[in-house]
Amino acid sequence: MKYSELTDMDAVELQKMLKARKTELFTLKIKQKMMQLQNSSELKVAKKDIARINTALSAIKG
Fold it and tell me: What pTM did the predictor assign?
């Protein structure tokens, strides 16, 4: 996901996407603890996506 894709969305869509990505990050962390995560780079991607969404949200509010 690129930041330019997020700038076209409104705050409600971004909030929904943020909640979904945080849930996904939580499940990835659980899988990692239980040694079921095959690709650990998914954690890094999820964290960066959350940061991009938060940046887009702050740009809308600010």
Answer: 0.91
Please state, in angstroms and rounded to a whole number, the distance separating the CA atoms of residues 26 and 6.
Answer: 22
Rounded Cα distance, 54 and 49, in Å: 9
Q: What is the mean pLDDT of each run of 10 residues along the chain (62 residues)?
A: 89 96 97 94 97 95 80
CATH number at residue 25: 1.10.287
Question: Is the separation of the CB atoms in 6 and 54 below 8 Å?
Answer: no
Q: What is the DSSP string of 7-61?
A: TTS-HHHHHHHHHHHHHHHHHHHHHHHTT--S-THHHHHHHHHHHHHHHHHHHHH
Which domain, by its residues, includes 57? 3-61
Q: What total of structural domains would you count in the chain?
A: 1
